[in-house]
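Regression test attached.
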Amino acid sequence: MNENETRLKIQALVDGELTGREAEELRARLESDGGLRALHARLTAVRGLMAGAELPRTLPESGDFHWSQISQAIGHGEREARRLAKPALGANWLLRWVMPLAGVACLVLVLSLQQTTMPDLNILLSGDHELEFTADEIDVMTFNTGDDAMSIVWLDYSIDLQQDSLQLWLD
Amino acid sequence: MSIPRNNPPMNRFKVLVALLLLVSGGFVAAQADSITVQARLIHGTSKEQKGKMEVPAAIKKKLARVFKWMHYCQLNSRQLNITDATTKTTKLSKTTSIEVTNRKNDKIAVSLYSNGKMLVQKTQTLRPGSYMVLAGNTGTDSAWFIVLSKSK
């Protein structure tokens, strides 16, 4: 053990940081070595002097500094995520009112376009005409003449034109 | 001996109400319009069919303006007098009949039946001078027409 190490050991002994066996061995050396005993006495005296003279230092953080820093980092991350997720006031208003209104406007536009873009078949259809079919398999075409004096429903269906003989007799 | 008169003002009121109902009923009946609809079954062909009655010239002119056939003979004609909100049915051929409903304000609904099955129903305003035509092909190069018109 070199001299510097021995001094550090004595300093540790003065500070009460040595374990039992090490402390015993060093005390045994102190009894036999006058120089080491003098160093121990001097360090003990200095420690005694400094005991009441040191300025009290309080840590800015709690003793559990490490976990505190981690907790702070997590909290900061969450706040940052919330800040990014939360839209600005203007954007919030936009989402709440303008977007639904724009959707409704688009719907109205599409519906109105569908009504106005009917194919022009060059056939007149009056507004008060209603047509109802019961036989789905029959193809039907309906149109009015240009002067609107005749409305025609053309059925892809052949009817029997034969007259009822009884009715003819009655007529 | 005198006839007992129980509550005479009440009796007068009842008579008055009855009179009012009678008068208003007659007024309503007088207001109920009836229409006369002429229904014609017509056969349109390319060739002239001798011995068969031609349709009135006005109808022929209108049909010939739209359809290719040149000759239109009338197979049957029926006149229906229909009061408001009532329906009348008439047979135009052995298997074909129409049902006409007076829906007021010149509006009529015509249902076409063939072999008891409704083929189509058309509802429209039919004014005097205008025609509602239900038509279709027959098997040969000809066509059938049911022309409905309203008398003035």
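Expected vs. actual: identical. Chain B touches chain A at residues 41, 43, 62, 65-66, 75-76, 91, 93-96, 107, 109, 112, 114, 117-125, 129-139, 144 (CB under 8 Å).
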